[in-house]
Amino acid sequence: MKMFCFQCQEAAKNVGCTEIGVCGKEPEVANLQDLLIYTIKGLSYVCSKGNYLDDEVMDYIPKALFVTITNVNFDKNDVLNYIKKGIELRERIIEKTKLNRDELPDCATFKEEEISEKANPEVVGVLSEKNEDIRALKELSTYGLKGIGAYLSHAMRLGYNNEEIHKFIVDAFTKIVESEDADELFNLALEVGKYAVETLALLDKANTETYGHPEITEVNIGVRDRPGILITGHDLKDLEQLLEQSKDSGVDIYTHCEMLPAHYYPFFKKYEHFVGNYGNAWWKQREEFEKFNGPIIFTTNCLVPPKDSYKDRVYVTNEVGYPGVKRIPEKNGVKDFSEVIEHAKKCPPPTPLENGKIVGGFAHNQVLALADKIVEAVKSGKIKKFVVLAGCDGRHKTREYYTEFAKALPKDTVILTCGCAKYRFIKLDLGDIDGIPRVLDAGQCNDSYSLAVIALKLKEVFNLEDINELPIAYNISWYEQKAVAVLLALLYLGVKNIVLGPTLPAFLSENVKKILVEKFGISTISTVEEDIKRLVG
Ligand code: SF4
Ligand code: SF3
After folding, report:
1. Ligand nearest to the CA of residue 26, numbered in listed order
2. For residue range 22-42, what is the model confidence (pLDDT) as tens digits?
3. Is the pTM value of this prediction over 0.90?
4. 363 C-alpha to center of ligand 1: Å?
5. Domains assigned to the chain
6. Cis peptide before 302 (omega within 30 of 0)
């Protein structure tokens, strides 16, 4: 076994990747990422025991977690640098807090010289926990914490922070290091859900206070005849700086995949050269990026190992990394996009992929503005059910299910969506109900909080005791670890009977799956007909 990773939905054979990642992650990088998580555990341990946090630690941990999320960083040197930095911070804190080194676990004391010996799936990888139920529970929380790290990084880039969330992260990792108790670890996973809600709420505040509340918007999916830059990932701050720096350059800016919802924010509408969305979900990038013709900027996941035909047009920022691609220089939080803009000027305009429009912008504020209309449609029976069809997209053929499911839903149902899962149906014409579109896109996976706000508001309007009495069904497609954080958030909010697909996570043991079924009624997808029957009746 060269590596062992089972953190995403595409884990080989739904068991784990052992030779190379289905995502393209090399064993060396996978093993270093395991060691980075081990380093974060050790750093968290000393922070928790020493009751210590400072700005540098709060800056480091969320970013280091983000680096290990699927399709973020494929560059061993980046991962190695994060490990070294983590060890350095940890040593400084041991020194400061005067913790007794002899009482610390290995993850909090190993040295830089041991990196190559430790970066081994049997030594610090997930299989080093031999009890498969304990392993499943620890990984469930770890992946949720990775998601929290990602969402927190985004909020922090906009100047929003909450020390309590950092405190929770270091305490949670300490529990993961110390506990072998299944009940305690199960409760920890739910607590991760609680803090996922807090973090998503913080990010929502950061986004909406900085860029305004998303509003109904038509987004062009065609192209213009000027050179373009394609920006993908989830980071709105990067987009802001790019738009500002490129505004008089004669270059157009297009969004890709999870950057699409940026068009819904009032703030970005003032840029005349912010022209539309190009392409589809992340997994199609190898064919679509060839046709884009201009530079592509990755601000976060999902990066698919680039083809040589366009690799020299790929740029990365933040936690993203891939060997041999260019990094956008950054100084004091300001990125310098001048090289990409100059690069774009020398490129032909994008080749059109399609024409038309996508309609979105139904985040909580916009939906609540339509609340009267929606409540009326529910009361009169015109809307029978809302179906949350949200989460991640992926490359497996089984995901065609989601397109068929959306098409087969009765005409009196409304789809609530967010995340890149929407690309399976957002371009279908599913019509409207008295002017309310049948697909309401709240935004990125980062905007999942919106769907929770909408559900809680409807619960209040309909005067219900329990969130599960609402006419809302949940059919969630997952892929990476931010989706794990969102799932735990929904469980924490008390949502039952979630259908999770296209498969249940490989990292859940049979016993842990059983608990999730018993306590929360979680199940996985079946056939479209059957799922329509059980979800909408
Ligand atoms: Fe495999 Fe997913 Fe891990 Fe990549 S992230 S190595 S595809 S389990
Ligand atoms: Fe998508 Fe990668 Fe999860 Fe943000 S872009 S939802 S998979």
Report:
1. 1
2. 999 999 999 999 999 999 999
3. yes
4. 31
5. 12-209 (1.20.1270.20), 217-345 (3.40.50.2030), 366-535 (3.40.50.2030)
6. yes
